[in-house]
# Entry
Amino acid sequence: MSQKILIVDDEPNILILMEQALEALEDEGVELLTARNGEEALATIQAENPNLVFLDVMMPKMSGLEVCHTVKHDLKLTDVYIVMLTAKGQEFDKQKGIDVGADLYLTKPFRPKEVLEKAKQVLGS
# Structure
């Protein structure tokens, strides 16, 4: 069964950057999916059941925190590894991310190499 990574961000340039960072994994059979807002993210997570989600915090329609809470607490999809992406690095935000069930927190701007290494670690490749 192929592994899937969902990238969620409302900024097109961040989506492109993330896809470029992770495209090396496509050679290993990993499927990259994208969503541009929280509602789309939630629908994609329910339909595709990705192994890993890179989730922006600040988004229209539904925030990353709301999406994460819904996935982890309401849908009980504990096997989905969620990495919160945010431009804010305050401890308060990190605590909120952890409270809603985020597995990891990355602050923008991030290094593409860091994103790829984290994805490989989570997917075990």
Notes: The first helix runs from residue 12 to 22.
